[in-house]
Design a protein that fits this description.
Elements lengths: L5 E12 L6 E25 L9 E9 L10 E4 L2 E5 L4 E3 L9 E10 L1
């Protein structure tokens, strides 16, 4: 996809099912399914430092551009350059309205620290 792309790792937790209702209630991240996705590009995005009493959080919102058809869903996690980000929102295929160039899947990420 990109001549100098990098490999990111998709992590997918296992749904924890309520024994009474049969409905998923949470996600178990103790042994996530792992998938390497080569040929990606990383857009570092920006960071915010929201004011909160008693703490100094940093919220980072980058994006990853992955090959079309990559198995990434909202709720997954991506490991990029040693940091683990949450996938927030639905990954979407992106296409330039000016040139028709389709770099692939745009994956919105978020990392909360602090």
């Amino acid at each position: 996809m990109f001549a100098h792309g990098e490999t990111v790792t998709r992590l997918r937790g296992t749904a924890v099912v309520d024994p009474y209702s049969g409905e998923p209630t949470s996600t178990d991240w103790s042994a996530p399914d792992s998938l390497a996705i080569p040929g990606c590009a990383f857009n570092p995005g920006g960071s915010l430092e929201p004011v909160e009493a008693g703490r100094t959080p940093v919220v980072t919102t980058p994006e990853v551009y992955a090959p079309t058809g990559s198995d990434v869903l909202s709720g997954d996690r991506l490991v990029v350059r040693g940091l683990t980000f949450d996938v927030v929102g639905r990954p979407q295929d992106w296409r330039s309205p000016f040139t028709g160039w389709a770099p692939g899947l745009v994956i919105p990420l978020k990392l909360w620290e602090g």
